[in-house]
Amino acid sequence: MAIRFRRFKEISKLVPKFYSGFNGNYQLSRGGIDCHFHECLRSNKKFEWRNFHHFRRYSTLPKILNEPLPEADFLSFIRSSLDEHEGCSYRWLNVSWGSRSFFKKDGIFLIVAGEYIGDSLVSGYNSSSMFEKVKSLQQRYPSLQVMGFIYSPTISLDAVGTNLLRRIMAEYITFPILLSDKCHPQVKDGACYIMFKGVESPLIYHEGIDLATLDKAVKILTTDQGEIPRLVNKLDSTWANRIQIVKEPFHCLSLRNLLFYFPGCVSADEGGNRLFLSDSNHHRIIIFDISGKILDSIGSSPGFEDAEFENAKLMRPAASFYHACEDCLYFVDSENHAIRRADLGRKVVETIYPTNASKKNTSIWSWVLDKLWTEREVDTKSEEFHSNSLLFPWHLVKSTNNDLFVLNRSFGTLWIMDLASGIIKEVVKGFPKVLEICGEMIMEKSSVLKRIPNDLLQQQLDMTCLLDGIPHSSLLSSVAKFRDDLVFCDTVGQMVFKLNGNSGSLSSYQFSNFGVLGLPYWFSFPLERVFALDDVLSDMHIDHTEAFSLLPGRVNILMKIMIPENMDLVEPPDRSSIWCQARGTAMEVSGTESKANSSEKVGVAQQWYDEIDHLAFTSSEAGPNTAVETTTSNSLMNDGRICFDCTIATSPGTSEIIIYAPLYLRLTRSSSSRTDDRVENAARIADILDPLRRPSRDSVIQFLLSSKRDLEKLVFVKPLHVRLKFESADHPKADNSKGVVLTDSSVEVNVAL
Which domain of life is it from (predicted)? Predict the structure, then answer.
């Protein structure tokens, strides 16, 4: 009895928060919980949510619905769609089509639901805030099954899917979204959150509910069944490893092969002739000069780890500012809910908020576990939600008194942080109060956007929330002044523009020196991955496979890559960007100098193998099972082919050589400007971006066309993936029968993309 009473004591504290009304009054939409509760106590019966046969709408709006809402139709519709990607009245977005079932039907579900109007869930409301709350709970409770439900009775599902691709990219939505053309009463009158478990009646909350209340509701649903909620990270300021299993939006997966994938923010160091571009969805910050030459890159892969630039892990970096006295770049690590600092002199990334309370274990065993283990135990002493937590920060402004002003995308919360200590001094909630403190600074910085052509500006504003009285405020961090010029991030066309201060001409940057970027983290095949990813990379296109039968010994491999028709190579691949990995009886062991050069920028995956080689093979003696040398060169041949070579050593048996390289391409300039040509160009780019032609291909084509940019200036990456198999017989015997003969062989591999 005491346990039941304690459980309902928790529920009774939570129920008043489900309703609005400034007088604190609240009521159930049908029936009363109190009388039913006391009846259970008198009869010593177990109280069950399933005894209620109608929806309860717990609203933050003054008006309470009194009409019963049918439960069976909506729940049965949701459950019937869980095993099929598409039906007569629905379609799933943002799911892997290789997976037959992507939900467990007996789990706890959290649905963010609403009607599709334009690019938002509901007109007049900031859907970014809703998505942030849902993503916070998704990070906090890995067992929580999160989905979006959007209905559109008047627009075709194809049109909605295309427009939502931009929203998924902008909000970095990793959970599945169910589109339907059927109208359901539960979401007809506004966006809402729906929670349910099994056959129990759902709990429904309107969009204005706070995150703390939603967090408590998840706990009640979980512990009601005798389970203990498994927390991966806390929502307070105590350090926790935010990213355990990396998830990425599946619906716009192929767009990762654009040169930039949501270039969200930019800042400048005018004295050093450097600009800092947050290539947000590639989880890196690119350093380049005013001419577009790439100088360096901060971040190697998604995650949360302080290290050198080549090994540091970020998760959707956003706004930044350069501190000249320290020669450091301070930036927002949005999905990690952190503020971090890049020391440009030492080339090291450090976290200034939140601070790590525990010392890092530097033992060899901890290093191996850190590389191999997909999940870690995290201290969860504080399980309560902290209302002042730094959640999904986006904008960053330095004040005159050495404080940092950190704001979220909707400008609903301001965190004032001491720059020296990294301590949050004050948290300001609500746009009017935020405006009182830093409205003048926001106005001053966003005022320069008036110089950007209106047609380019308007497309960016369509995807963001606007603040009353401050036009273009949502693009506060998307523009930077560099002497007389303006540098502007185009998150719709995935480009970066420069507005000349003297002539007023607008031009897109022509970037160069791509070898600095190394091998992109998403190129690694599943077997080669060294960090945990979701199933978004479960299938990867292989451009070329070929088998050879050779005598064991030294093998020189010459690769010739034919560039696709109507495509131009922007620049030949750099040696540091080419990954050659030997498996089986073949080995590739470079000398000390060439090893350091080849792994300097090749990326975290190749460096992992290099470190393992260094630990496992400490002897430099050459034998029949080791390669004498590895060389890689590249050049552009006259017939339009790329040529590079490498050398391996094989032993008797079977071996495989895996070769990856990023090829930076763009469309060949055409003199025609027909509309049909533009559609064909978008289709060509879509096929290069995703040769597997996933169902989202049509949405990608429409996305490229909707940007209204010159597609022939768009730089994209073709991931080259070649696998070569070698069968080697036994070594030939030497004349004296006391040794073996090592043979030299050469093979030529021609790859047509």
Answer: Eukaryota
